[in-house]
Every structure is written in C-alpha cells, then in structure tokens.
Request: fold
Amino acid sequence: MNDVADRSPGATEAEAGLAGAASAVAEFQPRRRTLLDHIQHVLHNNPTLVPVIVLALSLVAFGIIAGERFFSPFNLSLIMQQVSIIGMLAAAQSLIILTAGIDLSVAAIMVLMSVVMGNLAVNMGVPTPIAIVAGFAGGAAAGLLNGVLITRVKLPPFITTLGTWNVFFALNLWLSGAQSIRSQDIDEKAPLLKFFGESIQLGGAKITFGVILMVLMFLALWYMLNHTAWGRHVYAVGDDPEAAELSGIRTERVLLSVYTLAGFLCALAGWAAIGRVGSISPQSFYEGNLQSITAVVIGGISLFGGRGSILGALFGALIVGVFQSGLRIAGVDVLWQVFAIGWLIIIAVAIDQWIRRVSA
Amino acid sequence: MSTKDVPLVQARGLVKRFGHVVAIDHSDFELRHGEILAVIGDNGAGKSSIVKAICGALQPDEGEILIEGKPVHFSSPIEAREMGIEIVYQTLALSPALSIADNMFTGRELRRPGFLGKWLRMLDKPAMERFAREKLNELGLMTVQSIRQPVETLSGGQRQGVAVARAAAFATKFIIMDEPTAALGVKESRRVLELIKDVRARGIAIVLISHNMPHVFEVADRIHIHRLGRRLCTIDPKDYTMSDAVAFMTGAKTPEVADAA
Reply:
C-alpha cells in the first residue's frame, strides 16, 4: 500500500493528488503531549486509578489528622463493617449503572426482603433456610419487575425505579406493620438470619462474615464482567445499545438479567443487613439507594454507562467510610461529613467528564 | 449444472408494504458467487429496503429468496449471520469503549476449553486476540498499536477497517456493506476500497450500497440500479458511463435491456 495510485488503475482523477501523500490509513503521530494529557490518558485506560489514589490519600490524611486511633486494626475493620451493606448495594447498583441505567429501588428491595425473611422465619415459623430462599426469589422477582418495565414497557430506568422504590417501601410497611422484629426474637427463633453478623477475630480486627461476603461479591462480579461473554455484553449494552443489538447481542435479555441479578444481590444484602443491624427494621437504610449511587460515582463508574470497573464501587464505598470515620475521630461535626461527601460526588463526576473527553 | 451456475442469492417478486407505502414493489435481486454487486438508487428508491429483506432485517410480504438455490426465511440478521452472511452497517455497530478483539467477537465469543469454559464460562482471551490480530494482518490493517486498544481511540478509517475485518473473518457467503466510504476522507476511502477488493479476492461476494459513483464504478463487477421500489436493470460498469447510471436511476433515461450484465 505504498503507492495507492499505482495499485488501483480505477482510482479517480482527483485521487491522483494522493500519489505523493502519506499512504498509511492513519498514522499515530507521536503528538507532543503535555503532562496533563498523559494523566488523562492513563486515567482513561485505568478508570479505577482515581478512586484508588483518593482512597490512599484520604487514608494518609486521616492518619495524620486523626492519629493512631484511626489506623488501629479495630477501627479499620469497623470501617469495613460499616460500609459492608452499602458496599453490597453499590455492587448491585454498579451492574445497572454500567448498562447506563440507574436503580433507585436497591435499598427498598433489600429492606423489603429482610422483612420477608424475618416475617416468614420469626413470625410465621417457616424453616429459616426456606425463608431465606423465599427472600432471594422475592429479590430476583423485584429486580425482574424493574427490568420488564424498562425493557418491555420501555420506561426510563430513573422513573421506573422511582416508582418501584415507593411501591416496595409501601409493601415493606404493610408486611411489617411498620414494626421492627426484635433482636432477641431473631436469636430465639431464627439465628441463621444473623449468620453474616458472626465474625472472626484477627489480632485487634474483627472481620464479620458480612464483610467477607461483600468482598466475595465484588470479586465474583469482577470475574463475570471481565472474563465472561455476559460481562462484555453488559459493557457493550451500556456503551452503545444500538451497536450492541446490531452486532448480535440480545440487549433486552442482557438488561433483564442485569436487573434480576441486582435484585437478587439486594436480597442477599438484606440477609447480611439483619446480621449487621441485629434487628429487622422496616425504616432502616432509607438513604441506602442514594448512598449506593454515591459509592458507584465516587468509584469512577460513569453514569453514562459502559465505563468503569466494578472494583471502583468497592473503593468508592470505602472512601465514604474512611471520610466518615476519620472526620468522626477527628471530632468534626457530622454535618461536615455530609458536606465532604457532597463535594466528593461532584469532584468524581467532574473527573469522569474530563476523562471521557480524552482525545485519541 | 455446477453449483457455480446457481446464483449465490436469488430473490424473485419481493414485495414489502408499510401501510400505503410500497417499499419494495415486486423486485428481483441477484448476487453471483465472488462478485462485487453495487446497489445504487435515488434516495427513497428502496435500495436499503431490498438489502434489508435479503439479510433478514425486514420480512418481505411476498416473494421468495433463495440462497445457493435453497429458499430461506430469516427472521433477523442474526439468523442470516449463522449462515455466513455478514453486514457492515453504516454506523459500523462497534462498541467504542471495548477493545478491538472484544468487538471482533461480540455475540460469538470463544470460551476456554474444559472446566473453566464450561462451568466458569471463562472467555478465551488469548485465542480471541490471536485471531483478531491474524485477521487484521491479513487485510493489512496492523498499523493499530494493540489489539486491546479501545475502538474509540482509532481513526474513522481504522474503525471501518475493524468492522470490515470482523465481517470478512466470519463471512462464508457474502458481506453487505452499507455506504462504507460515506464518512471517510479521500485517503481513507481509498484504503477501504482496496480492502473491499481484497475481500473479493478471498472469494467472498459483496453487496455494496453506495452513492459514490466513482467508487461504485471502480470496484463493482455489476451494478444493480434500483428505481421506484424495484430493480430497474443491472449493468456492467465497463459498458456504461457514470452519467448513464445516474440517468437510469433518476429516470432521465430508460435502459434498452433490463439485464445488461
């Protein structure tokens, strides 16, 4: 392809002018890049790098501000416990946001399913394993409902899940009669519901099974997203749904599977939440929906879909936990924790926008 | 009669109506083995409708489509794809954030053999990358730095190259290309035309939909001229000029014979 004009006798007259031109389809001229361009490129290729750096910096900063107490194994493991439930919701939320959707109902599904499990096992005397499986099925069904409304009825995810959030919350109040199930009753009738509150002691650190579950959930999803065809399809659907459909992906099926899996993961988080909180309260985790989105966004997953790593959401959840713990130990008023998280969200989205503008 | 005498695709009396609009009006279509058939026509003549009917994106109301002499009824392009018919869409249908290798295999990924693939459904990334690199090399497209590079970092011509390479890698019968040079500059168009000829040299037939007369006359073996929902005629580009073709397609002139090629 060195001399286009020779090789193609049919080339038009206008193209004769090409004879002397460079003939490669396109060359990658090593354009001079500024340091900032370089950073932008590296971040574009490694979307998880931002949250990792922020996490590392905030650990160092709070280590200095809050001192030794912050870095104690006890406190670090406490942060893990505190973020475990929101972390699991963020895992489910990440799947949905990767498809360019959003799910405002994740925490509502979670609480509803922990109420279902508690009602069946504690109040109705159903064997606990069956109650838990019923909760899983309910969570998957709730997710599937979201998926059907979005893919078949073609409603926007935001509106759909805003609606189902209310529906699930109302069902939760109805099923529970707005009453909590007390910790002692759970211990007495269905201790298995508190399984994820159990822990192992490692030095001064207390690792609950809930924390282990969260980490395993992220690792499993990371594997699925990066090493299976399904995962590649999730990214492709979020990236450009029309292109995905044309290249042979059944996009509706992918979306249905994503929402259903997210619902199931929320139910699993609901089981873990019983162990974390101790009791089952229909009023708990009311802000969980937005907190999960916060973790995902701070974790560098693009709200426009198709970009980011699910591990980012884990780091995002940890960043929020580290900020809250650090500021609390440093004796800063709670309102400034909220203030700081607010700015983190804005900065994270601004960085995402900047990275997306990367020039080839 | 040898199989070479049976046209690769033969469609007779195709009709497609959308309400009162007749998009395809008793049209015929023929594609022969190993040829480049250009389909030209004015805007709204229905050239993309007839091509869509051939590849399963539209289901005709009447008429029959034979592929290598056997009647087919595709309900989607995915079914056509299973028979070795590939389409390069004008929009290319690539996922910008995914790598070149991922894009080549979208919807037909390879899995690892054994336990990992069967139970953990693990993708065979090394095999897919090797295959993708091989195919791009064959078409002389390895100016690309890395097969893991996201498609969005490629130029327009390179993206077109990836889309063509994907089609060429999996097509066993023919490839439909919709306006492959419309979005490209002069230099990049030239490379894509060479690519089209390379694909033909490998024995794969091509249906080329294009508005660009110089490109059509350069690469096509035959030209199918579509007018008012049906095939007006087919011509041999060696026997006619570009202005003849334009005159036929706009109705300024009527061809003496319907099947001149």
About this structure: The two ends of chain A are 24 Å apart (CA to CA). Strands of chain A lie at 199-202, 205-208. The first strand of chain A starts at residue 199 and ends at 202.
